Amino acid sequence: CYSYVGHQRREQDISIGRGCERMGIVAHEILHALGFWHEQSRKDRDQYVTINWNNIRAGKAHNFNKHLNSHTLGAPYDYNSLMHYGRRSFSKNGRDTITPKKSGAAIGQRDGLSRVDIWQVRKRYSC
Questions:
Q1: What is the pLDDT of residues 18-47, one digit of tens each?
Q2: Residue 57's domain is classified under what CATH number?
């Protein structure tokens, strides 16, 4: 499952392969195509989550880099975002790769867009 982030000035592929058929996963990839980065890639993410670099599988650390050009549009950090990775995404040892700093925060849901996700889409596209 993948999509490039934002307008590519060419055909925009969204890959939905085996195991990616859930509506939340499809919506996640569509949000990438619409220009949205992963929530834990925000430049202010260190205030909200800890990235456990030692638990990340070899060759997958780039998935946890901050994107300084990501635009939050003034939205608060959203643990419930469809664009947030789960606690053990790309884990090499079954341990957390991302630990929320907010006690009890659940991350990585793929059920649907959060309120903040919807607000950001509406703000970005004036709808």
A1: 999 999 999 999 999 999 999 999 999 999
A2: 3.40.390.10
